[in-house]
Design goal:
single chain, 131 residues, mainly alpha
């Protein structure tokens, strides 16, 4: 029984660390709301990047893992948690995209972007590659 309690407390602690990490890497300002609005275009971008062979294998693996997480019917952060509940998907997408843009460069992302130039400007801001 003590072992089970220890495992449960350990998992709860890891989950709390995940929440803190998501909170720390979240986009600042109104970028998060813009990211949520752009989610359909961003999902198409993620899919295109995951299939593009110019993207290094490690980055493609991160993209496929992100797509798998987004397809899950549940979230690691429940929706009733303020700020992070509804934004965890957008935060994770932003974080993974930031790492992929650093690996391939903003030119590849711009080439594969399916949305408007204004949407691409938001993605550049989210990924820290704005000019």
């Amino acid at each position: 029984m003590d072992v089970l309690l220890g495992v449960a407390l350990g998992l709860l602690g890891l989950w709390a660390v995940l929440l803190l990490g998501l909170f720390l890497i979240r986009p600042r300002g109104n970028s998060l709301a813009l990211a949520i609005r752009l989610l359909p275009d961003v999902l198409r971008l993620v899919t295109r990047l995951a299939r593009d062979h110019r993207v290094p294998r490690a980055a493609r693996v991160r993209l496929w893992l992100l797509l798998a997480y987004l397809a899950l019917p549940f979230d690691l952060v429940p929706d009733f948690i303020p700020v992070l509940g509804y934004a965890d998907d957008a935060i994770l997408v932003s974080w993974v995209l930031r790492s992929v843009v650093r690996a391939v460069g903003p030119e590849v992302v711009a080439e594969l972007w399916p949305g408007t130039p204004d949407g691409l400007a938001v993605v550049r801001r989210l990924t820290g590659t704005s000019s």
